[in-house]
């Protein structure tokens, strides 16, 4: 057997190995110094563990552990309630925060509403001409009223201007 096949056998306890596996491992360990060192190292922990005396717990060990568990469980009730609430509140608060951020981003990044009257003024009124300010209800401005105003302006501009008579 090669070293790769031995790696799996070296990790197991000698009692877990079948007779054929144990013989193949012993044969390989005699020929391969690297695997022999690893086998000795793995056996060291087993030898130390078997040399230590078995410790017996005190007769009151179980009673003290149970009393500690009861005492801790009485004091942990408020913290358990906080943890249970936090499991539901944190995702809910995160969702609300994302909603507010989305609304804020939408309102700040959306283009401004177009005012038809201001657009008309900027497109059709030359800057050098004196402007007349007309106060009108923007709700009364329709496509038809704009077309009528444009037609009247064209008519005014195309009509010859009579010069005043000088007497």
In brief, what are we looking at here?
With 167 residues, this protein is mainly α. It has 7 helices and no strands. It has 3 domains: 49 residues, no CATH class; 30 residues; 43 residues, no CATH class.
If you had to describe this structure to a student in words, what would you say it looks like?
- It is a single chain.
- The longest helix is centred in the middle third of the chain and has 33 residues, at 77-109.
- The N and C termini lie far apart (133 Å).
- Helices cover 68% and strands 0% of the residues.
- It contains 7 helices and no strands.
- It folds into 3 domains: 3-51, no CATH class; 83-112; 116-158, no CATH class.
- It has helices at 3-11, 19-31, 33-51, 61-75, 77-109, 116-124, 143-158.
- It has 167 residues and is mainly alpha-helical.
């Amino acid at each position: 057997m090669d070293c790769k096949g031995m790696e799996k056998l070296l990790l197991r306890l000698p009692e877990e190995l079948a007779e054929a596996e144990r013989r193949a491992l012993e044969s390989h360990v005699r020929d391969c110094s690297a695997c022999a060192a690893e086998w000795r190292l793995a056996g060291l922990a087993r030898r130390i563990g078997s040399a230590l005396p078995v410790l017996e717990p005190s007769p009151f060990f179980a009673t003290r552990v149970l009393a500690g568990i009861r005492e801790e469980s009485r004091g942990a009730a408020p913290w358990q309630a906080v943890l249970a609430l936090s499991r539901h509140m944190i995702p809910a608060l995160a969702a609300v925060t994302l909603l507010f951020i989305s609304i804020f981003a939408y309102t700040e990044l959306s283009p401004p509403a177009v005012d038809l009257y201001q657009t008309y003024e900027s497109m059709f009124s030359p800057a050098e001409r004196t402007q007349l300010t007309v106060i009108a209800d923007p709700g009364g401005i329709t496509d038809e009223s704009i077309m009528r105003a444009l037609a009247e302006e064209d008519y005014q501009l195309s009509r010859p201007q009579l010069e005043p008579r000088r007497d």
